[in-house]
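PROTEIN SPECIFICATION:
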Amino acid sequence: MAQFETTDYAQMRRCRMAHLFRQPVNEQFKDGEAGIAVSGLIRAVRPDLTCRPLRWIITIDRQQADVLELAE
């Protein structure tokens, strides 16, 4: 499992809906200037209320690429 932070409201909503319907996601999270592509199932979407702008911590259970191909 991996945790990522985002301040993008639209990305948080996509992850929250995928978590609700238990669908795998393919998201790209920013890591400085580079982006990290992540595929897997969302385990949790939690707000971090201690900072401004509001950010969300998203926990993803990563899947291997061959597992994703079999699921399609």
Notes: The helical segments are 9-21, 65-71. Strands lie at 2-6, 24-31, 34-48, 55-62. Residues 65-72 have pLDDT under 50 and may be disordered.
